[in-house]
């Protein structure tokens, strides 16, 4: 699936500010699940944008504006192509997490972090899922994924970034960041390396279930999690929607939690109050000759990671368990 994405954020200040310095993490990069075709970041007032890759492997666009300005607008345009991935073939036992250098290689995704610092409630619930499922590692991850989706209710405005995962579990409400943080914390609490992922989810424009070609759909940034599976890499799951990450998911990057992949981080000099407006528009490019023409005009560029559709894997796991009984 080929998608055009426009991320726009606009800051309005009640008096001019100056010396604004910012880091943007909204442009996808590339891996086996997706390919970034092109990307462009522009600012108003105009600033030179410097692109690099941070410690976690996420593209970072940095820029600064010295002169006084009452408004700052940032626009990031990207074209990305996602692809379906084959079903996960590996089925390691839980003991595989401690074999060789696997644990040392993933140590940063095993430890508590500011937004994934679990307590007894999170650890107990994760251990219960493990006891219910058994020693099949993928099945344990899927059980945690399903449990988070069944326990939490999506309710915008009920939480804020920084609410402890224990509080999210106790209240039972949150947004996609909370779903991802709780899932990551549950995995880590029982020794499964897990990381927080930021990205976009292309949703349909109406209730028909048809994804329109050429029509822009307004969405928000999205979040999910990935769990490390020995011999298979990272298993990406979206607990907010109860699915495996698929072709409609576009990955920006990952980190220990939200703080490592915050879309825009910056400072300015001044005492002004600010208001922020953020929009994300995604347009699916059509297949056929028109898409071929678009590809011919596109230039390759570094990019990030996408995923695959999910109920297939859940069904496969259930079938394997039935066969073993």
Give short descriptive properties of this protein.
disordered C terminus, C8orf32 fold, 15 strands, 325 residues, alpha+beta, Immunoglobulin-like, 5-stranded antiparallel beta sheet
CATH class of the largest domain: Alpha Beta
* Quaternary form: single chain
Helix count?
7
Q: Give the helix proportion (percent range).
A: 10-25%
Q: Report how far apart the termini are.
A: 39 Å
Q: What CATH architecture of the largest domain would you give?
A: Roll
Q: Let me know the largest β-sheet.
A: 8 strands, antiparallel
Provide the domain count.
2
Shape: globular
The number of distinct β-strands equals: 15
How confident overall, as mean pLDDT?
Answer: 86
Q: What percentage of the residues does DSSP assign to strands (E)?
A: 35-45%
Structural class: alpha+beta
Gyration radius over CA: 21 Å
Q: What is the H/E string?
A: EEEEEHHHEHEHEEEEEEEEHH
Low-pLDDT parts are 289-325
CATH topology of the largest domain, by name, is: C8orf32 fold
């Amino acid at each position: 699936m080929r998608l055009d994405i426009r991320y726009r954020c606009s800051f309005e200040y009640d008096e001019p500010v100056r010396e604004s310095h910012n880091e943007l993490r909204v442009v996808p990069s590339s891996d086996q699940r997706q390919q970034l075709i092109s990307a462009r970041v522009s600012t108003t007032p105009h600033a030179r944008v410097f692109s690099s890759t941070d410690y976690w492997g996420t593209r970072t666009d940095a820029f600064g504006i010295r002169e006084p300005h009452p408004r700052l607008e940032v626009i990031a345009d990207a074209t990305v192509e996602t692809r379906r991935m084959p079903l996960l073939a590996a089925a390691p036992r839980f003991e595989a997490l401690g074999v060789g250098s696997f644990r040392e290689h993933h140590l940063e995704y095993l430890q508590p972090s500011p937004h994934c610092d679990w307590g007894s409630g999170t650890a107990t619930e994760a251990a219960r899922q493990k006891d219910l499922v058994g020693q099949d590692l993928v099945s344990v991850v899927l059980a945690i994924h399903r449990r988070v989706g069944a326990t939490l209710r999506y309710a915008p405005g009920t939480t804020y970034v920084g609410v402890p995962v224990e509080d999210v579990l106790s209240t039972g409400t949150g947004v996609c960041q909370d779903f991802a943080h709780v899932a990551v914390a549950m995995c880590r609490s029982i020794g499964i390396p897990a990381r927080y992922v930021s990205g976009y989810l292309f949703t349909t424009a109406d209730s028909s279930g048809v994804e329109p070609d050429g029509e822009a759909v307004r969405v928000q940034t999205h979040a999910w999690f990935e769990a490390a599976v020995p011999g298979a890499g990272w298993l990406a799951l979206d607990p907010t929607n109860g699915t495996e990450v698929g072709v409609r998911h576009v990955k920006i990057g990952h980190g220990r939690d939200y703080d490592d992949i915050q879309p825009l981080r910056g400072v300015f000099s001044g005492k002004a109050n600010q208001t922020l407006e953020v929009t994300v528009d995604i347009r699916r490019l059509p297949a056929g000759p028109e898409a071929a023409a678009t590809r011919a005009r596109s230039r390759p560029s570094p990019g990030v990671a996408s995923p695959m559709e999910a109920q297939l894997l859940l069904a496969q796991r259930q079938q394997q368990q039935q066969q073993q009984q």
